[in-house]
Amino acid sequence: MSSIKHLKRAQIACSNYHYIKYSLPYFLNSMVNLGQHLIEFYAASPHLSVEDATYNSVKVLKRELDAREIKVCCLTQEQCVYPINIACEDDAIRERSTQTFIKTIEFAAQLQAPYAQIVCGRGYFDNPEEDAWKRSAESLSRIVDKASRYGVTMVIEAASYNTTNVVYDSHRMRRMIDEIGSPNLKGMLDTCAVAMAGEDIREDLALLGQDMVHLHFADGTPLGHFIPGEGKLPLIDYLTALDEVRYTGAIPFEIYNRLYDFEPEGTMKKCLEFMYQVIPE
After folding, report:
1. Where is the Xylose isomerase-like TIM barrel domain (predicted)?
2. Choice between 280 and 188, residue whose per-residue pLDDT is larger
């Protein structure tokens, strides 16, 4: 019998990270096939390129979501593969990156998504981290101001040090949230990033407290973003820790791994089966 007492299946969210070789209608219909009504939407080509999308194209997407009774818990634009970097030394790149997030906020509001995800960028690794921090905080302050006016909350993800040298662990996330000091800036955890940073998820949850509002759930070694059971992470213990603090946010799968691109629905079904064994109702 599962020891989970408070987490609910309604918190489980699917996502389109590993559906990108398939059309958007295929993904949306797959959610219907799987009986899912909550998703994290990965805003990337070909499903939704933020830089190319328009108000009208997002309006069509919202209509398609509504027709299937699907809600978006978080809009997560691509910002690791694309040249999006709010801490970049190059002023033009940094400004374009900031403007892309501002556009993402507008789309999140249009989709009625409460959250939009952000990574705090990176500076050159041969330059001082504090300089990158200052640039990131300046950009983030502008982005969060925009989010507050649109009723959207930005959630910081502490990506691994391979990706960023600004916010790469929960302590730096806590520092950035406190420095910006806005109710429209919160934090999130990624199970692979927690393991990569060598952190204890219970300590992270205590550190972030009510500011921990979102999650990326995947297996890893510690990286990898595998489906549950194909990595080595203590996923059931992670869920138990969330249950202990009565976490009420969404639990989206971030299966950001090209291994699964050719059988996306079967992959998502395996993720759901794992969760259904752990979360009773």
Report:
1. 34-276
2. 188
Q: What is the DSSP string of 170-194?
A: HHHHHHHHHHH--TTEEEEEEHHHH
Whether the CB-CB separation of 219 and 235 falls below 8 Å is answered with yes
Scan for tokens 């970049």, then name that residue: 88
Tokens representing residue 241 in the block: 């820790």
The tokens for 209 are: 């407290």
Query: Cα(29)–Cα(73) distance, rounded to whole angstroms?
Result: 18
Residues 112 and 58 sit within 8 Å (Cβ to Cβ): no
Which two three-digit tokens encode residue 121?
């960028």
Q: What is the mean pLDDT of residues 136-145?
A: 98
pTM: 0.97
**Under CATH, what is the fold of the domain 9-278?**
TIM Barrel (3.20.20)
In SS3 terms, 17-76 reads as HHHCCCCHHHHHHHHHHCCCCEEEEEECCCCCCCCCCCHHHHHHHHHHHHHCCCEEEEEE
What is the per-residue pLDDT across 147-162, written as a single tens digit (0 to 9) for each? 999 999 999 999 888 8
Cα Rg of the chain (Å, integer)? 18
